[in-house]
Design a protein that fits this description.
It is a single chain. This protein is mainly alpha-helical and 319 residues long. α4 crosses α8. It is flat. The two termini are 43 Å apart. Keywords: Cell membrane, Membrane, Sugar transport, Transmembrane, Transmembrane helix, Transport. It is a multi-pass membrane protein.
Length: 319
Amino acid sequence: MSTSSARIRTGAAHPTPRAPVRRRRLSAAERRRATAAYLFLAPFFIVFLVMLVVPLGYSGYLSLFETKLVGGTAFTGLENYLTAVTDPTFLAGVGRMGLFLVVQVPVMLGLALFLALALDSGRARGGGVLRLVYFVPYAVPGVVATMMWGYLYGRDFGPIAQLFDAFGASPPDFLAPGTVLGSMMNIVTWEYVGYNMVIMYAALRTVPGELMEAAAIDGAGAFRQAWSIKIPAIRPAIVLTVIFSIIGTFQLFNEPSLLQALAPSAISNGFTPNFYAYNLAFVNQDVNYAAAVAFLLGLVIAAISYIVQLRVNRAGAAS
């Protein structure tokens, strides 16, 4: 016993050296196939570099400078970033979108999950038509959807206000400072419920039918099957919709940009961080500070997305 242990320890202390791996030279046919693969990938990498990497690098370069009427452009390092992290307008916009994320995203994804489960259960008649009906709002351009809801919200000309007037009641003001954020949540929910529902429904269709039959034989009802089998099975799809929703929330632009004409007192130029960066760059002509704000916004989105994904993965591993 002791001799064998000593032999093992001796072997561990002096591992047998491996022979160097010699790379095999590619044949002419293999080199042609590799060249063809690189040629097929080249258009993507060219567009990726020109349309994403180069603009990002240029924006990062601009964010390190400051342009003044007197003195011209000067290198300031991280001063624009330090200004942005103490900018009350930027911080208020980030906080407003944080509230939007906490309230609107769970409602939207919960409704999308409910619709996906209802369609997957097969108990709803006309499932194909219903999928199309739920998805149609996503096919409507965001600008058109916002203008349509702006018309419906209008207190002087909208049909909702006219209906209240017909009954002699005072119409609600959907575009007041205290209600405009909720009105935007309603627009975004209307637009993206169908989109998220399609992602979840497609994931539900991959759940093995034998698993559901076994659960039914064991006496599990529809709710039990959905809660214990279907929802855990489509967790990656749900996480994907959450990440997409986080990114979309902090990039909210169409709604404040278009509704500002109807509610200028309720929607400021810094209502959302994305709208703030746009106004800084194209209204105030301060592209250097706008680039810093945009980069900070990207960091906020990346950090929140990473934290959410990490917590979901840990919760999945624990269960």
